[in-house]
Amino acid sequence: MTDLFEKSMETLELPRVLELLSEQAVSAEAKQRALRIRPETEPEEVLRLLDQTDAARNLIGLRGSPSFSGVKPVAEALDRADRGGALNTRELLTIADLLTAARRAKEYFNDEAAEKTAIDHLFLSLHGNRFLEEKIKRAIPDEDTIADAASTELADIRRHMRAAQAKSRQILQKIISSPTYGKILQETIITQRDGRFVVPVKAEHKGDLPGLVHDISSSGATLFVEPMGVVQANNELIELEAKEQQEIERILADLSAQAAAHREDIQWDYDTLVHLDVIFARGQLSYRMDGVRPLVRRDGAIHLRKARHPLLDPKTAVPIDIELGGAFDTLVITGPNTGGKTVSLKTLGLLTLMTQCGLHIPVADRSEISVYERVLADIGDEQSIEQSLSTFSAHMSNIVRILKEVDDHSLLLFDELGAGTDPVEGAALAIAIIQEARNQGALIAATTHYAELKTFAMTTAGVENASCEFDVQTLRPTYRLLIGIPGKSNAFAISRRLGLDESVIQAAQAQMDSDSVRFEDVLTQLEETIFVRLEEISVINSSPDWDQSTYHYLEDVLNLCYESADVYRALICRNNDMDFQQRLFETLKNQYMRSFLERTCSASGRELDLFC
User: Fold this and answer.
1) I need a surface site. Which of 86, 293, 371, 479 has the fewest CB within 10 A?
2) Is 547 helix (H, G, I), strand (E, B) or coil?
3) DSSP state string for 269-328
4) What pLDDT digit, counting tens, does each position of 266-291 carry?
5) Chain mean position to CA 492
6) What percent of the chain has pLDDT over 90?
């Protein structure tokens, strides 16, 4: 994977999607692996990943997700145990928790399920070790405790310890309860110093209670004395505590050795559970995004239905339809600023990358995506202060790198291609760049403001126009992408709505050449007529039944659209070549009709072939 491909993934915001995926994972390692995911470039591998995501999503719907809370790294501890080292209680409990997670995952999996899935083999490969799991947890209830049940020897030692402690406390209790010793004690309590039981004696009475002085208070007024009567019992207790520690070390060493003996199985379970954690994170993200599995193609074609950008609020994001690679290999998207052109471009690129990562994407059913060896994008402000590059130079530097890497397995995304320089030269460069990339066999989607690229798309086989719809009345984009329809700049209409003096607008219009004016008029009048007809046909689309008379009415409405479009023939005067005018008009009209038919059939659930 090249640096340019990595940069394009950043541009298209794949890392942000992977962060969302990481949030769905449970274990720390799965979270890190989610962030490191990169798009696969082989269709078979993409299909395998999507099969896994399908399986996880279906299982989540049926049984919820397995628990991965106990999945923590164990390799370092197992390595030390394998070298003969003794693990501490925390490390052994981590191993036990992992074994618990493996056992529960095995219990979660239903081997008798009628339908086999792409992740069955992962569940079946888990080993688990209930004997070792329970032995560790029986011996170590928590990090700070070794239970008596860890061994019979430990239980016996602790029984003797309790007896020695009871004997010492019994002797001391008699002393602090005796009226004879009451006057020499600072307090009638039993305490400990250096692990031995003592009583607090007033300094002036230090000779009245025979015993060993273990400590003196900071004021010097109190001596902590171990009476001679309890010295032997305390000595016995100290010896027993030493035996207890030796037995604890033996127990930890034994448990460590047993863990080392199953080192490979335990490490396998860890890796497998982390793998499953990532897969189920993909399933969880699919639910969160309301994602579906697209059909994976091998011919470079893309057809996204009701696609949403996964990082936009699904309540406000407007679904778009995007098509590329079937009848045309290049899509030129036009329209005003903030109209959704860049979002459309990013949606196309990001959903492609997500699919190649094995993720479900927020689209409607029957969406299709191809697998590319590289998805390269030039989007956003590429101005570089460090390299003293203007926006145009920075973009061009990026485009030069793209053209050096492009091949017939590439998807290229250009935002405002040719912008930032003289419009005439910029448009010419944009067309030449698109043609060069097409010659290399790449699929291309590009946004632009240049009218020359609209004409280029209308008159060049394999290149299609698209536009982002804009509501001039509200001065807001609708964010709908219309395939087959070139967009208008709307600069004059927007300025008029914002209150710019009409004389200024007329003066600006006077500066435009007549061809440009007529070209924009064609788009405006065609849109008005076509979409009036769309309003008429919407009544038909809402009807639950389509009888023969409905088909005839639809045919009549379509004919009206064609007839109304005929009046614009004389307006298309890009030059004096009548053949060129005729060809341009037919191309424009057919694109509008195709778009109209697609939208009509999509709304009604009918197939386009019925009308073609």
Assistant:
1) 86
2) coil
3) HHHHHHHHHHHHHHHHHHHHHT-BPPEEESSS-EEEEEE--TTS-TTTPPPEEEEESSS-
4) 999 999 999 999 999 999 999 999 99
5) 42
6) 48
